[in-house]
Amino acid sequence: MPHAHESLVPLQVHVVTVSTSRGPAEDKSGPLLRTMVEGAGHIVVGHAIVPDDADAIGAELDRALGTANVELVLLTGGTGISARDCTPAVVRSRLTRELEGFGELFRSLSYAEIGPAAMLSSALGGLAGGRLVFVLPGSTGACRLGMDKLVLPMLGHLAGELRKEAPAARRATELVRPVVRARTTADPLPDVLAAPVGIEPPRRGMDLVQSGAGERPEPSSPPAAGGWQGALVDLGGRLVPVGNSTLPDALSSIPAAMDVLNSSTARMKLVCDDGRSWLVFGYPDLLRPTSKVLAVREALPVAEVVALHRWPVRVGLCCELEETLLPGTEASLEAVSTERCGRPWDGGGQLFAVDGAAVWVRERRYVRRWDGKRAGPEENVGPAIGSLLLHWSQR
Fold first, then answer.
1. Topology of domain 12-211, per CATH?
2. What angle do CA 31, 33, 37 make, to 5 degrees?
């Protein structure tokens, strides 16, 4: 479970490939950094390719650091000892604090792989105006080493420390449309990167738009009618940082349920225009349309839990709220089971949970599943909730 000072909110990242000889087709390290960043649940909002030129590198870095939503800049290339390798010097001139341990550890790790040649690398990291900046060599092996061993393991901690001191505007984390830019001239960043926009999660697989200098990316298609993105649109909701939100007491006392929620790698708060709000948990993240997303809020008897990725089908743990997204616990078992399963439940109890073609019925301390053909075995409420959350987080 992350420490209190660690950020669970995805960082927005700008990648810069420094190379005079490599264009988009030849660039391998930049795409590798993007893949690793996205695989860790963060958001790539831009990628530029600039030549080994101090002015070009500085201009690109200044544009990235001056963009409101960029929190981390990753640069690859230009760290050797040739006359044209100037990336570290340019970056160091912008740093307000250098993380000297980063370069030291990188060279130590690199020495174990390539021997004395590691001393030729000027990899470095630091802070520039409240933003994180890391410089890695141009080889894919060095990029993978630095990201796997140093950058990614510490991002949550570093982001948490920075966001504690950042003003509220800097902590805004509404998702932006990802763009790849291939530039060798000093054209400005596209307007789409100038400020955060409304909730518009990236397209399937975080597809990135490859555009030439001066071109604008094609607008992304509207969110699909279903899935968790469709749920956000239908509910008039937006994602914001978790803040001081806490889990429902009854749910937090169920170890099996907490195991599932603690296994999520992305957590935010869903706030609707009508004032309703949920804690949302993403599996594996809150970026992809295919992610599994659970929304949780306080309610009797345990909590309201909704599998938003199954939207518009209402799936989740039922509760006693008047404005619940699911059938309430006092709803007619006969009517709901007939609608869901094709046959009514003919026993006692009250509605506990609903899935696509099944309902769960609660009788005192036990619950049973009914699919219209047979009733499942009795289960204790706590383990049953844990099993349901695990099922919904995976399917």
1. Molybdenum Cofactor Biosythetic Enzyme; Chain A (3.40.980)
2. 120
